[in-house]
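Listing S7. Sequence submitted for prediction.
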Amino acid sequence: MSTDSRQLTAPPGRPAGIKDIAKALGVSTGTVDRALHAKPGINPMTRARVLRMAESLGYRPNLAARYLKSRKHLRISVHLPQEIALFWDSLRDGIRDAAAPFAPALQVDFRSYPRLGEGDTPLFEQALRDGTNGLIIAPGNPAKLRSCIRKAARRDIPVICVVTDAPDTQRLTAVSADPFTVGAVAGELLSRYLPSGGRVAFFTGWLGTHDHAEKLRGFEGSLDASRGPIHLGPVVEAHDDPREGYRRALKLLRAHRDLKGIYVSTVNSLPVLQAAEQAGRLQNLTIVTTDLFPELVGWIRAGKVAATLYQRPLTQGRLALLALYQYLLDGTCPPPRIAVAPHVVMRSNLNLFLERLPVDEEGVNRPRQG
C-alpha cells in the first residue's frame, strides 16, 4: 500500500489540518508546511504529493489563525451601487460575513453610489487617497475605470471585480455567476417553455457593462443552438432604473402584440412584471427573471414567472472578500476568474430554496477561528 493511501479522511468533527496530511503521507509537519507555503528545502515530487493529499482531504488554510500570527492591519474598500438594493445588499452581507472572523484589525469600508456605472470613479480615486490596501468593485463602465485600476496596480493595491468585470485591465480577479452561462440557461429555458416558437424580448441594464453584454451573447447563442422556431426580438436597455424599466416595458408590450416571452437579465424585474400585468399580457407571456428576493416570490408562486436564475450574491461577496484577504495576507493569487454556478428556481422547487435562504452558503469554505 502506498503512503498516499494511509488515511484519506480527516478525523470526524473537524476539518483536515497539516497534522492529518503529515500522518497520511508519513512525513513531518515541517515538510507539509514547506510544501503548502512554497518554502525552500523540499523537492518537487514531495511537494506534489503533499498538495494532492491536501486536496483529497479537503484541506483549507486557516486564514483567521494565520491573520492573528501576522499582526497585519488591513483596510479594504468596497464600492457597490445602491440600486437595486435587493441584490447589492445581499452581496454586502456576504462580504461582512466573510470579514467577521478577522475583525477588529481588518477594516472594511463600504462606499455606495446611485446605480451601476454612475459615480463609482470618484469613490475609487478617494479610496486610493485614503490609504486602502485593496478594493472590491462592481465596474458598470469598465472603460472609465481602466486608468483607476492601472493606478491602483502601480501602487500594489489589488482590485477584485464582483458581479461585473473589467476585462483586459490589471484587476486581480473577477467573481461572478458566469454571465454568458446565465444568459445561455435563460435562452434554453425559454426555448423549452415555448416549443411552438415566437419572438422573445431581452431586458437588461446597459450593454456597455460587460456582464450584461455577455448575458445577451449567451442568450442569443442558446436560442440559435435550440434550432427551433423561437427567435430574439427587441433588446431593451433600462439602465437599472425602475421607472424607466416600467415605461419601456409598457411601450414594448403595446407595440409588439406577438411577443411570446421575456428574459429580464438584471434584478430589475418587478417593473417589467408590473407593466405586463397592467397591459393584461401575463396570461400569454412566458417570463424568466434574474435573482430571488421576497417581492418576487408571489409572482413565482402564481405562475406569472416561469423561472428565475439566482446568481447567489452572498456567495459572490464572500468569495471576493476571501480572495482579496488571502492575497493581502500572503500573496496567494486567485485564478483570473472565479465563477459561481447559478441556481434555477421555479414554482416546483421554490419552497426548498426559501427554507434554505440564504441558499448560497453551499460551496463556500468559511475561515476557521484560530
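Caption to Listing S7: primary sequence and predicted C-alpha cells for the chain studied. The first helix runs from residue 18 to 25. The chain is about 45% helix and 20% strand.
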